[in-house]
Structures
1.
Amino acid sequence: MDQPAKNTTSGYHLSELVYYALRLGTIGFGGPVALVGYMHRDLVERKKWITESEYKEGLTLAQLMPGPLAAQLAIYLGYVHYKILGATLVGIAFVLPSFLMVLAIGWAYVTFGGISWMQSVFYGVGASVIGIITISAYKLTQKTIGKNILLWSIYSASAATTIITESESIWLFLGAGLIVWAIRTSPWRNWPNSVNAAFLPPFVTLASAENSLAELLAKIAMFFTKAGAFVFGSGLAIVPFLYSGVVKEYGWLNDQEFLDAVAVAMITPGPVVITVGFIGYLVTGRGTDFLTGFAGASAAALATFLPCYLLTIIPAPYFKKHGKRPGIVAFVDGVTAAAVGAIAGACVVLGRRTIFENGWTPEIPKILLLLVTIGLLLKFKKLPEPLIVLGAAIIGLLIFPFVHANR
């Protein structure tokens, strides 16, 4: 019981941060872009539990390490004042609500044969979520980039790269950090004597028997461990990797089931990567057996999030110890500028995919929902995002049949 109930330097109880993570995982819509924005707004600006520099360190580490962005940032922020215990409890609290939600949806999906209403709900929610993401990215840009011309240049280049390629590159983040470090410091001085890089992809070993559930669970664990350990970028970056594996390589899901899985992740709060729980349930729960479905969902989720947990807490002490050095600060600023630029670029990419369904023909109802969402968030600063998402879902259910009736 060495862990104090309250850290004297933080001003908050660990239980308060865990409750916040639980709440964010329960009502935090918008995907990784919005979630990292909520953490900055709530923990840095409003509650002041986390400093701006600590947040930047966490965001940089989350961008440099493979795995889901929002989950890694939450884990690091738990580590800041409460070390491994804080990282562990915050990480579990952040992921658990959305895992339980996709588990329930997976059971309903298998039991009742698909989710026909999902398209209608996502029609409204998708456009509204883009508005929420846009506001979050705008505030994050204002706070982290400021008026620095160098950071704006990196931010713009990163945003343009993301928009053009529709992907994120670890080399761009590293290059941005090195550029700012080289310009602000003398490269031949102040360089740490050693740089410790910890990449420890876990190897999963499970007992298996021919054509048994254990064998299937072992395959699920191995595949999703690779997904969590070697896919960089936001939670959405894992989608192409998942598609190539669960649809093309293993044939666990067909195209429509995979699209439904992604839609489930988008219309539920919490990290987008939690779609792996839904996929795991479908793979093992075909016979409407909840326990085997639960086993598959748990294996997929644990295998995906364990690498990102380890790849956050292992290098975290280095960031905490050396994060204030001028060279490290410069590197962090550069990576942060590139990361926020990539987030802004992702808003454009996601918005284009959501608003323009067929080529470049815009969906007028979606544009109106997007503009209304942005207007409401700008007008009413404390308006809860879940309330907006709920309203958008209801609108989607009402208008979707009419919008597509003439097609």
2.
Amino acid sequence: MGFFEKIKTGLAKTRNNISGQLHGMLDSFTGANEDFFDELEETLIMADLGAELAVSTVDTLRERVKKKGIRGPEIRQELEEILSEVLDFEDKSIKTDTKPSIILVTGVNGVGKTTTIGKLASRYVSEGKKVLLCAGDTFRAAAAEQLSIWAERSGADIVRHEEGSDPGAVVFDGISAAKARGSDVIICDTAGRLHNKANLMNELGKISRIIDRELPGACRENLLVIDAATGQNGLIQAKQFGEAAKITGIVLTKLDGTARGGIVFAVAKELGIPVKLIGVGEKTDDLLDFNAAEFVKALLE
């Protein structure tokens, strides 16, 4: 199955919910009509774009329709272009050019963080890279065990300590092991939640300082995993984690399980952070590099 078809299949619920309403509206469009724009705005808000982005999207579309004299189904292409522009960041790839490179993965418990790490490990191992997983989420019961299963399944190495250990010490040992073993990529799991935000920020700040000290000049990604089904709550999570660590990219999981995919646009617009990966299924290869144009096309087709 090709990239576009995989996204289309994974976004079935989202597409059926949004496009079921949009298809009739767009296909029957005969010219500028305020009732049409009001209905479109409401539909986009219901799709989790958020009120501000939905309003600005419709305002831009209204201007272009009047300026270009659009009448007919070509309005769909115009809407695709506007939505694609929201998601179009210059830096969308995950940087792994140094040896080792390091990927710090954050996110609240239950969003699919460990699964995302396992899928990433499988991807890099299949590309011939030597991968080391670092079980830095020492506060959640069985987190290290789950990561160990993924390490065995993917063929990656793993460094772990006892439950409740200092996450910074785990990351330090992981970096030391990666240097000794000649690893290409280090992927670090981190605590999804501590008992207060100050502790979370302190913990992530400590880990960041260790990485800066031990791997100066290394390619580094701070990826935040968000469950697409959480809707606007995903924005709150992103803002909180963004205060604790400089997030370089978003991973949106479980897009195949939600009927609202607009959170992709809300995160990109409101936070100015690129979506770099999306999860559209349970299989290892269902973690896809994000492509804005293909995503919007699959969503609206």
3.
Amino acid sequence: MTKPKAKYIELIGIGLPNRGAELLVRAVIQACIDEYGDCVFATAQKLPEKELRKLGLKRCLRNGAGSLQTLIERLIKKTGISKRRKISYRPFSWLSREQRDKLGIVLEQDIDLIVDASGFAYGDFWGSAKAQRRLEDRRKMWQSMQKPLVFLPQSFGPFEQPGFEVSLKPSLEMASCVCVRDKKSADYLSKFTEKARLYPDITFLLNGITIPKPQKPYSLFIPNSKVMESGVVSRDEYLEMARRFITLSRQLDCEPILLNHEGAKDLELCQELARSEQVNILDPEDALVIKATIANAEFVFSSRYHGVVSSLSTGTPVLVFGWSHKYRELLQDFGIEQWLIENPLHAEEVMIKFCQHEQLETIKQEIAEHLPSVKQQLTQMWRWIFDTVRSEP
């Protein structure tokens, strides 16, 4: 019997080493392998080689040309050629797929399915140029090669700035499936397409791992520098919220721990709090370890979206301070939107109500009641996506 040909899948919109993005990638890999069996996953994004190796991703070379950086990282240790210079990758098409696989290289024409796994990338916060680079610059090539494009559940909008009609709308029109993960995003997207369907974040279905649980109970504070960059809170206000949470955790006999979910800016916040409050920092490089760490916590205060998702998916009570509509929409799905701090002036009041043993048990029950429905919706979503893609020419 002839072995079925591997399915070649390109991932776009994956902002590694962001650990939320890593969870999204792992969730896509898990679902596609469950459906297709043998799969090859690739990306054309310029991502750290370390991250690609960890997730088993290959380099996708775009339409026979690309940055010399790719070859430098893969094949050349020393070169005097500028990294900005473009070269032809056409010679790679003379190699067999097996030979290219060994080099960790996939050509654009090899791809069977393009999956946009962005978490929140299309809207005024980033501007239309991001959608132009990620989607419109490649859309005509995808169409000419009849490559199916799927937008996985993500947040969209708002779209008050000009340019999205050109940079985003055509890709939505050509897409086989468009998913949004909250109602407000669906409203924002309605000006461009009527095909979008509402589904939860895909990482709710991601299989986790277990790690040893410390004897002493602990809570987690997961910062996000973006809440300050977005202007919803000042640095002093944000750090004061964290300090108050640390104090309340200790009153519940929980050791407060700072968890860096992504990047140097968040780690800087952790380090500042660690110095002033004498608390420990956890900075795992593996997103599954982060999720397991959240699962072992008594409760969590998170400003990272996937810190919230991982809390909910593991039944861990979570208090939230965010920077966009996606946080409220997520908590509403579980009937616990009252645990979103919307105004720093009211933060202490909300935290005091949250940090009560009886209240934490109630939150656990609310999460447990809603979680099965969320997972069922995602199972239905993947079935719809795979059936739609399979039915297309």
